[in-house]
Amino acid sequence: MSSINPSDAFPAGLATESPRWATAWNPLNRRDFLRLMGASLALGGLVACTRQPDEKIVPFVNSPENQIPGQPLWYATAFPLDGHGIGVLAESHMGRPTKIEGNTLHPASLGGADGFAQASILELYDPDRARTVRHEGQESSWEALANAVEQQLVLHSSNEGQGVRLLTGPVTSPTLRQLIHEFLEAYPKARAIAY
Q1: At residue 66, does pLDDT exceed 60?
Q2: pLDDT one-digit tens code per residue, 96-119
Q3: Rounded CA gap, 9 and 51, in Å?
Q4: Rounded to an integer, what distance in angstroms lies between the CA atom of residue 171 and that of residue 150?
Q5: How would you write the chain as a 3-class SS string?
Q6: Does this model's pTM top 0.85?
Q7: Which of 46, 57, 77, 115 has an alpha carbon 20 to 30 Å from 146's alpha carbon atom?
């Protein structure tokens, strides 16, 4: 019976199974491993050494009503999921939303908040979110958007809306369904698509 050293078993098996990869296999010894880890930690530390720009912290001249520093404010709101509103409570510290919890008084959530509701906190405070209407990369206005849509609808009114598509999310609101129905009556060849 021959005894095989466990450290030799893998390279030997790799050489018989896949000779091409066996030449690339070179296990690190302890010294090389520590040297590699030390270099990666040093590089990681250098990245963290960037100096952040100085910011001035100025207190409120007139403190907002009902805001006490360190005390959260809770707001009852709804989180839309598949066209339905799920009742949630949003915790806010000094004007910034920080936590979403289920609303125990709402029949859809009954005090629970799933992962989608918890992740929606990122949508509430997103500094990269668009704050204005944009057209071809330039800032525009809601009035300009309404005028552009109206011009396109006037162009398509002669062909009863052929080629016009109305893209929405799931719609459960009776009012919105009625508005979409009226739009499709005015433009019979247009299509409404719920994504």
Answers
A1: yes
A2: 788 888 888 888 778 888 888 888
A3: 50
A4: 23
A5: CCCCCHHHHHHHHHHHHCHHHHCCCCCCCHHHHHHHHHHHHHHHHHHCCCCCCCCCCCCCCCCCCCCCCCCCEEEEEEEEECCEEEEEEEEEECCEEEEEEECCCCCCCCCCCCHHHHHCHHHHCCCCCCCCCEECCEECCHHHHHHHHHHHHHHHHCCCCCCCEEEECCCCCHHHHHHHHHHHHHCCCCEEEEC
A6: no
A7: 77
